[in-house]
Design goal:
Structural class: alpha/beta
CATH topology of the largest domain: Rossmann fold
Number of strands: 13
Shape: elongated
Order of helices and strands: HEHEHEHEEHEHEEHEHEHEHEEH
Radius of gyration: 22 Å
Number of domains: 2
Length: 335
């Protein structure tokens, strides 16, 4: 029995949260306790989600204590599950959580509901597997893809480029619904507006920058002047594609469109390798998720399913203060 208790304690210690301000708030102060469980901070997107949620918490610190948890990286599925299991044991008033894998994480939502703990989904959806969540906030992925498709057609028209040729889609991961929606929205809109364009088979980088380099190089070599556009549906591998465009000097021949902000993406816009950048609103997702969590606890009506709009940036959008804060919410983080 002592050995078993030691192992349980060890698991709990390994999943200790990262607390805003460096220490856990007193649970007996009459405030709501909100567990804010995110994917790792390895990608700028999730750091910006953190800032949005924690900004709201700090603005409403008279009503709530928000405790921040995250795993060491996005692929640490078991660590994320352990953190969430222990969060449920700690009995917060509500959990606002990002998902590692929607199908797997839906079991956590069900467990929380059974324990009487409402949940708010941050940045992804479990609705295909459970309806036990209280609210969800995610990007309108299909709409963002449509926006990118319309941008491509308009760019070609404005530059007197024929609405024909081959279009390549590079997805970061196979089977991820949000990414499928981004690609489907893009393809559907392009073919609606320019039916003579031809989509070649989608390829997958598996979130591997080196694989993305190979995919981009291979397609540029294989299709040459027939290739009109390469479209990437996620940020982690976009810098790799930008680098290939720069090295091979093909930016005036092939349109590169991608998702999500990074220093490399902004430089790519400024220097012309990247023509359009679809941006989610991670700050808004975090902020609205935390606001919904507080509203739920206060008994207010909260819409269950919420799609956050995307925007598309070009070279002309870079440089304004508004754009800078959207691209890098660190500029408006409340310390």
């Amino acid at each position: 029995m002592k050995k078993k208790m030691f192992l349980i304690l060890l698991v709990v210690l390994l999943a200790l949260p990262v607390f805003a301000g460096g220490e856990k708030e007193d649970k007996d102060d009459g405030k709501y306790e909100i567990a804010y469980v995110l994917k790792s901070q390895a990608q700028p997107f999730w750091n910006h989600v953190r800032i949005g949620g924690m900004n709201f918490a700090k603005e409403n610190s008279d009503k709530m204590n928000a405790t921040l948890y995250f795993a060491k990286d996005d692929a640490a599925v078991e660590e994320g599950l352990a953190i969430l299991e222990n969060v449920i044991v700690s009995e917060p008033d509500i959990i606002a959580m990002a998902l590692i894998n929607p199908e797997t994480m839906s079991t956590i939502v069900d467990k929380a509901a059974a324990a009487g703990i409402p949940t708010v989904m941050v940045g992804d959806s479990v609705k295909l597997w459970t309806d036990a969540y209280s609210a969800e906030f995610l990007s309108y992925d299909y709409g963002g893809g449509e926006m990118a498709g319309e941008f491509l057609v308009n760019y070609l028209k404005e530059n007197n480029i024929p609405l024909e040729g081959k279009v390549a889609v590079h997805s970061a991961l196979a089977g991820l619904i949000s990414l499928q929606n981004r690609c489907n929205g893009f393809q559907d809109k392009v073919l609606e507006l320019a039916p003579n364009m031809e989509f070649i088979d989608w390829v997958y980088s598996d979130v591997d920058p080196m694989k993305e380099v190979s995919l981009t190089q291979d397609q540029i070599s294989a299709y040459g002047d027939e290739l009109t556009c390469i479209y990437l549906d996620a940020g982690p591998t976009l810098p790799a594609a930008i680098r290939v465009f720069d090295e091979q000097n093909v930016s005036d021949k092939i349109v590169l469109i991608g998702w999500d902000s990074s220093p490399e993406a902004i430089t790519g816009l400024e220097e012309g390798q990247l023509k359009g950048l679809v941006l989610q609103d991670p700050f808004g997702i975090g902020y609205n998720s935390m606001e919904a969590a507080l509203n739920i606890l206060e008994g207010k009506t909260v819409k269950k399913d919420n799609l956050m709009p995307t925007v598309i940036f070009t070279k002309d959008d870079v440089g304004t203060r508004e754009a800078a804060e959207f691209l890098d919410p660190v500029l408006k983080e409340i310390k």
